[in-house]
Write a structure and sequence with these properties.
Elements lengths: L1 E6 L7 H14 L4 E5 L5 H5 L10 H6 L6 H4 L1 E2 L1 H9 L7 E4 L15 H4 L1 H7 L6 E5 L6 H9 L2 E6 L3 H21 L4 E7 L7 H14 L14 H6 L10 H19 L5
The chain binds adenosine-5'-diphosphate and magnesium ion.
The site of magnesium ion (MG) has 4 residues, from helix 1.
Length: 268
């Protein structure tokens, strides 16, 4: 099982969108996947076509890791049902550990190591996934650190804007401190530049800045600003299933990014 956190210090840069894009690519590539929705907003849960509150949320499992397993609590994404209708012979597994306000309880800066291990413990009982994608909240507080503790790698998300570039550098430093403090082999699986507009000189400038700062860690291809992205998310569809050239192009980008990310993570 490969576990990867999708994080950033800043909100609104596209963590949930990148998580969902990667989940769509995983479905397309036939990889059995669990999305852990750690953000109390539960946007990933909604985006995956699951009504929050229809199964035990991840927050409840974190509070009582011994009561029930993640494999039982996880809910099937409506994307998987749609995928099976498209390709009836290939079983598709894409589940979500539902987000809820309950996780907010752990979003504190003062969690003890015992508490930081809670998500690792919950995931350690799972037997059915090749890939776990953790959608983190927009802070580097308790929940994100809990996610990092449970992960093999972290992918940071940045927008080509001044504040996001600065925030990504701070996140990178926080990751280094985390590795040092807890002596974990957690790897940085790159920075995804999201919402890139080709026609914007400012975006070109900030992308060049990201390249200078992070070198090879800036993952390619970059994710373009996709005109109907909000419509796709609003309809709770996988980008792979959405018609039109723009969605097809973005789906290809996520297919490539998922391959790159998985190739740099250990295989079990
Ligand atoms: N590549 C993209 N193209 C167009 N809109 C995007 C893209 N990525 C994100 N968005 C939009 O930006 C907003 C914030 O994205 P979101 O994924 O919710 O960020 P976060 O999870 O970091 O808070 C959402 O309305 C989303 O639809
Ligand atoms: Mg989000």
């Amino acid at each position: 099982m490969q576990v990867v956190s999708i994080s950033s210090l800043k909100g609104g840069v596209g963590k949930t969108s990148v998580t969902l894009g990667l989940a769509s690519a995983a479905l397309n590539q036939g990889i059995s996947t669990l999305v852990v929705d750690l953000d109390p907003h539960a946007d990933a849960t909604t985006g995956l076509g699951v009504e929050p509150g229809t199964s035990r949320p991840i927050g409840e499992l974190l509070r009582n890791p011994r009561k029930g397993s993640i494999d039982e609590a996880a809910t099937r994404s409506s994307w998987a049902l749609r995928q099976e209708r498209r390709q009836p012979r290939t079983p598709a597994r894409l589940d979500v550990a539902q987000g809820s306000a309950l996780t907010g309880y752990f979003d504190r800066p003062d969690l003890r190591v015992r508490d930081l291990r809670r998500l690792s413990r919950v995931l350690s009982t799972s037997r059915q996934y090749e890939l776990v994608l953790i959608d983190c909240p927009p802070s580097l507080s308790g929940l994100t650190r809990m996610a990092w503790f449970a992960s093999h790698g972290v992918t940071l998300v940045a927008e080509p804007s001044l504040f996001s570039v600065a925030g990504t550098e701070r996140s990178m430093r926080a990751l280094e401190l985390f590795r040092r403090d807890f002596d974990t082999p957690l790897s940085t699986v790159g920075v995804v530049a999201n919402r890139y507009r080709e026609t914007s000189p400012e975006h070109a400038f900030r992308l060049a800045e990201l390249r200078t700062m992070f070198g090879d860690q800036l993952l390619t291809p970059v994710v373009p600003e996709t005109p109907n992205w909000q419509q796709i998310q609003g309809a709770a569809h996988a980008v792979n299933h959405w018609p039109g050239d723009a969605a097809t192009e973005t789906a290809k980008v996520f297919d490539g990014l998922l391959r790159t990310i998985r190739a740099s993570l250990p295989t079990n």
